[in-house]
């Protein structure tokens, strides 16, 4: 459809030759006989854009009278904990009439919009930007009675599963200083595990809820894709976007999921979700049997046999999984070789869409666009690019290369991702859940900033069992099941996470399996000493 116009504005900046220059990098040309017309059409679309840009934006208006923001501030040195776990401190008191989260303290990953609270995204590429709206999960937490105590540090643009990449500083593992808290929901997981807050809301696009939950020894749930609206949360790749809770128990995770899930009328990814307030995951856990009689649990061979999985983690998770038999479930080894394709499929999706998002070129979804963040970040400058952590630079470089050299590959990976989803769904017709290690190792020591390969190495391989379920959208829960020795020092014991994965929209089943195991065994008393290497 052509742009409609009657005349071109006098101060229109489009000039002859501009249309040709736009397509020249693509190796394309304009026939000289058509050049004047395309110049006129380009000038018309410029005027159209100027008109739309002058219109007011349309953002949800938060109720700051009912939920005022108290004492918003960057934490002082005395307020900071676990290195740099807090991004901003403030208090928003929850619904005084109460809900299922009454009395619970919450932090939010620093990619979740809170009106009036500057957002850092773990970066210093540009100054912080301040949202004028609240993310849907923020509103729902407050309505459920939770008190929000601040935003917690996330890794640099969420491009790391380590916890030393944030421009605001390193987050320490609550079990051992000098060791990773995981990422990119690093600060939140550490705050939960150390008892500073009851619940954190994290974002997960490759493992960013489950990896830090595993490293820090807390419970982290990546729900089914679309179960929780992503409205008001900064995105990398919309088809991998997930938000979910971290807490110290499955019951708290379930209660939080009840509060924040359900379509909000904005995020098209949540169209298939339940009506808000219609789930009863927490009550179901309280009322369900304390055994798992009749359930069939699959031990996913490829999740254990990957070269990156340390012997101590493999032994720990297999030992924990065997206990399901004592709880009445049957367990059986199962194989899905395509599980091993997950990291490569995820990488292609995330590099292409991630680059488009960073460059302001991602389109195609109905929802809330974070226009204020885009205005703060764009256009990129070389000065900003040089300040970016190597992982962010790598996303842009990789994405531009893939779009240039492999046109159409993103669509193919989306199709293959759907095929992988179907294969897992076929397994879930036979097995209630699948079990595997969350991370292949316990928390490693912090890396350090240096040349790109040195900076990225500490995160490599950590998402071999998590990223695939961001691609397929299946609900995946990490629970702590004991301790294993650090690679560098067998006197330092660090948490091990077991990942429990279920069929699409089967969070209740996943939570039940985790809850029964958790209720039957004290993970803090379980230590495994098998050689990690």
Radius of gyration: 24 Å
Mean pLDDT: 95
Identify low-pLDDT runs.
none
Helix percent reads 25-40%
Largest sheet: 12 strands, mixed
CATH H level, superfamily name of the largest domain:
Amidase signature (AS) domain
Q: What is the compact description of this entry?
A:
The protein is of the alpha/beta class. The protein contains 17 helices and 14 strands. It has two domains: 55 residues, no CATH class; 456 residues, Amidase signature (AS) enzymes.
Q: Which SSEs are present, and which pair or pack?
A:
Layout: H1 18-23, H2 35-53, E1 70-73, E2 86-92, E3 105-109, H3 136-143, E4 147-152, E5 172-173, E6 176-180, H4 186-193, E7 199-203, H5 210-216, E8 219-222, E9 243-247, H6 250-260, H7 281-287, E10 296-300, H8 301-305, H9 311-326, E11 330-334, H10 342-358, H11 371-377, H12 382-387, H13 390-405, H14 409-428, E12 433-437, H15 452-456, H16 467-472, E13 476-485, E14 493-502, H17 507-520
Parallel strand pairs: 3-4, 3-7, 10-11, 10-12
Antiparallel strand pairs: 1-2, 2-4, 5-6, 7-9, 8-9, 8-13, 12-14, 13-14
Helix pairs in contact: 6-7, 10-13, 10-14
Report on the structure:
With 533 residues, this protein is an alpha/beta fold. The protein folds into 2 domains: 1-55, no CATH class; 70-525, Amidase signature (AS) domain (Amidase signature (AS) enzymes, Alpha-Beta Complex). Helix content is 33%, strand content 15%. The termini are far apart.
Structural features:
Amidase signature (AS) enzymes, AS_sf, Amidase, 33% helix, Amidase_dom, single chain, 12-stranded mixed beta sheet, catalytic activity, alpha/beta, 533 residues, 17 helices, 14 strands, two-stranded antiparallel ribbon
